[in-house]
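Predict structure. Chain length: 192.
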Amino acid sequence: MRVWSKLKNRIVVGITGASGVILGIKLLEFLKKTGIETHLIITGIAKKIIEHETDYSVKDVEKLADSVHDNKDLFAPIASGSFKIKGMVVIPCSMKTLAGVANGYSDNLLLRVADVCLKERRRMILVAREMPLSQIHVENMERVSRAGGIILPPVLTFYSKPKNINDMVNHVIGKVLDMLDIENDVYKRWGK
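Prediction complete.
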């Protein structure tokens, strides 16, 4: 039987069909080192983008998680509020997924888990990946934020004097980890 401290150290990671899947992969790599239990959902389009944008295979990415769930499986344990998790990160988050979360349209597992996080008042972070933003995108972000979700777009920063793309990716991953209250030194903080 698991103790509560272990149960709350579960995180669901969703990778959706937006450019920037490396962000989700790097988050999984970091979490694997921490001993935090991860549950992964990869959408169909995200699987194609992984193969297109990175040198990883979908199987490589799935091996980074403790459990992998089919996005069509609404009977998965993570679909229930009784399945205790610390939170969920959708990284990257497509505008389609954002719209589903904003409107409570839970027609797949990823959207259902996001909906559960909001209703159970658990951390739910959307790394929204699009530019420029339409009025609809902005309104959907506002709705999610008002419902308790965190919108964390992967914004470039330069105060840390990044040397390469990996430094910029790590900055985003560090900010996500901060929002989950997970100690990290993945990125250079202001004033250090």
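Summary: The radius of gyration is 16 Å.
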